[in-house]
Amino acid sequence: MRFDDTNPTREDIEYVESILADVHWLGFDWGHHLYYASDYFEQLYEFAEQLILDGNAYVDSLTAEEIREFRGTLTEPGCESPHRDRSVEENLDLFRRMRAGEFPNDGAHVLRARIDMDSPNLNMRDPVLYRIRHAEHHRTGNAWCI
């Protein structure tokens, strides 16, 4: 069993524990196979850095509203962010500073996959992979600014 507990503002420990208790009450025993997404934060971060190094992700500084506007519509393609062509070095610097919590505003920067702003599937138009979230996580505390 795996829990996606990456958003600390939506996941309450009481909620997680009640699901575990209910599943156990139904007779399921996962033994040593209970996993949380937060168990893999370091590995996911390393994957994200590799995406940046490979040119497949970039740090965007548009607001959430601007990202929606740039994404386009079902009938019109999206527009590339003006930050899409930042250098690998600048992207890595900004991403590492995001992790360190250096930017005080949630959403000041996000990491987006560099896919295709012309895709007919809106979800494939440079989706957000990481965002700044200043919130304590019920499993990792303040070790991450996710």
TrEMBL record:
UniProt GO MF annotations: ATP binding; glutamine-tRNA ligase activity
A family per Pfam: tRNA-synt_1c
Top-rank taxon, per record: Eukaryota
GO cellular component: cytosol
InterPro entries attached to this UniProt entry: Gln/Glu-tRNA_Ligase, Glu/Gln-tRNA-synth_Ib_cat-dom, Rossmann-like_a/b/a_fold
Residues covered by the Glutamyl/glutaminyl-tRNA synthetase class Ib catalytic domain: 1-146
Keywords noted in UniProt: Aminoacyl-tRNA synthetase, ATP-binding, Ligase, Nucleotide-binding, Protein biosynthesis
Gene Ontology annotations of biological process type: glutaminyl-tRNA aminoacylation
PANTHER family given in the database record: GLUTAMATE--TRNA LIGASE, GLUTAMINE-TRNA LIGASE
Family, as annotated: Belongs to the class-I aminoacyl-tRNA synthetase family.
UniProt name for this protein: Glutamine--tRNA ligase
UniProt organism field: Geodia barretti (Barrett's horny sponge)
